[in-house]
Amino acid sequence: MEITDASLPQLMDLLHGEMKKHANPEKAVNMANYLKNQFDCYGIKTPVRNEIQKEWFKKVKLANLNHWDITYNLWSQDQREYQYIAIDLLKKTPAKLIQIEDDKLLEEIITTKSWWDSVDLIASNYVGKYFLKFPEQIEPVIGRWRKSDNMWLNRTCLIFQLKYKEKLDVELLTSLIDEMKLNQEFFIQKAIGWSLRQHSKYDPDSVREYLKTSGLKGLALREASKYI
After folding, report:
1. How confident is the model at residue 7 (pLDDT cuts 50, 70, 90)?
2. Is the alpha carbon torsion for 197, 202, 208, 214 positive or negative?
3. Nearest residue to 35 (alpha-carbon basis) of 107, 93, 83
4. Whole-angstrom distance, CA of residue 192 vs CA of residue 221
5. Most buried by CB count within 10 Å: which residue of 7, 21, 25, 146?
């Protein structure tokens, strides 16, 4: 997570000042509790953070920095709000700036300071856009992530197609589900149900047919069946 541009520390100092100015210790306790006390927080609510980052993003754009340098710097900060800013920066990244080697960078932030509030947004946004741009990377990268011992990479495999609509690869999704359906980890079962529920909005018949023979039970089945 090396920082290479001299103007980046100046931008970070500016952001630190704004974040500290709007910190709310009482809300910070509640926010940390909601996140199972895994992260420190400033206690800045989303609308306030959005206003802070809106102005900051303008300055970032003018500085013409590499978006991964900024992302890594934000990711290294203690307060959880900085990771949210990093994710919003990634969401704003145009497809032309997404590079084929980004899979290693994505893997690092997915498996660092991991929780559903970061992983889900990264998976359904930047990861989803990455594989649309580089579909040839699905086989090697998803092939690696689906076999990983890291649950968050497994979950990413299941949900990166959430915004694909009719472009979703049903064969890939169902093969992933078949492989992971016996994993009783809550976040895996939830992701299985979520991915099928989302696809059922566009192809309810195929989801309905799959569920007949899938062997899914409990949470995954309940989530998958909500719209059909």
Report:
1. confident
2. negative
3. 83
4. 8
5. 146
